[in-house]
Amino acid sequence: MHKVLCLNKISPIGTDRLGAEYEFSTDMQNPEGILVRSAAMHDMELPAELLAIARAGAGVNNIPIAKCSEAGIVVFNTPGANANAVKELVLAALFMTSRKIIPAIEWAKTLKGSGKEVSKLVEKGKSAFAGPEILGKKLGVIGLGAIGVLVANAAQTLGMQVYGFDPFLSVDAAWNLSSSITKAASIDDILTNCDYITIHVPLNDSTRGLIGGDALAKTKPGVRLLNFSRGELVDTAALLPALESGHVAAYATDFPDDALIGVENVLAIPHLGASTPESEDNCAMMAVDQLKDYIENGNIKNS
Ligand code: MLT
């Protein structure tokens, strides 16, 4: 009997695939495998029998990779399995940072009075909540992995000019990756030219603080910034004054941060990018299949 410890709620469509040869629990000793979503594992003592950890998600920053490598523990993730879910939320954020949809809805809930009075107030709202269209605007996509490419494709069909850059790819490779990229750009091209910038790179020592004071100083006044990858990719201390002055017109993020809570032009979502039933099923199936294949056959995919 193989033993698998599950540190988060993982979709049963995945865990059911473990089958009769597996004991599976949220609390057990000496597991050979661990299934995890977002639980932070950095302070966890790694069990001696542990062979592999499978993350039902793309990022692996909640897993102590160096410690695992030293101990010969393989770490899997599920690239692409939740890409569509994240793409859809990024598109929603593109619209929401432009058209002030959320504050307008909140304001409309407060409207009181006769039909005529409400109509007058609505006229006021029309100018108070006006915002630009995205058609023809320049979108910079930093990071052209599974999610970045889907976002680039969708933005192009919405009539945006898409600039693409990936810190781990040459400009030529980035160009070839997505037919929807109008311009294979450098990061500076994106910072200086784009009306919207969306970040889709993993968090590691080379990307932490990627958008800091220097980068923000190069951006166009009124730029709208979207971060659905990891909070630490953006230096919030540097971002705050840029938001307050309006240089950054809006920041949409899937990672609420103390410093940004309550800031008017911040749209903070509680890490919902991958939270759709479809994506949770996809990630769970992929994570379980990889874990089993390694435990049973020693095969390694997406480690
Ligand atoms: C990811 O890295 O893909 C997401 O963090 C997944 C999740 O929401 O758990």
Structural features, described:
The chain is about 40% helix and about 15% strand. By secondary structure, the chain is of the alpha/beta class. It has 2 domains: about 1-80 and about 275-295, Rossmann fold; about 85-270, 3-Layer(aba) Sandwich (Rossmann fold). It has a 7-stranded parallel β-sheet, with helices on both faces. β4 (about 50-55), α2 and β5 form a beta-alpha-beta unit. Keywords: NAD, Oxidoreductase. Pathway: Amino-acid biosynthesis; L-serine biosynthesis; L-serine from 3-phospho-D-glycerate: step 1/3.
Task: Provide a concise account of the structure shown.
The chain has 303 residues and is an alpha/beta fold.
What is the oligomeric state here? single chain
- The shape, in one word, is globular
- Overall mean pLDDT: 94
Q: Structural class, from secondary structure content?
A: alpha/beta
Secondary structure tally: strands: 12
Number of domains: 2
What is the beta-strand fraction? 15-25%
Major β-sheet profile: 7 strands, parallel
CATH topology of the largest domain: Rossmann fold
List all distinct small molecules, including ions and cofactors, that are bound in this structure: D-malate
Order of helices and strands: EHEEEHEHHHEHEHEHEHEHEEH
Per CATH, the architecture of the largest domain is 3-Layer(aba) Sandwich
* Total helical segments: 11
Which stretches of 5+ consecutive residues score pLDDT under 50? none
Strand order of the largest sheet: 8-7-6-9-10-11-12
Distance between the amino and carboxyl termini = 24 Å
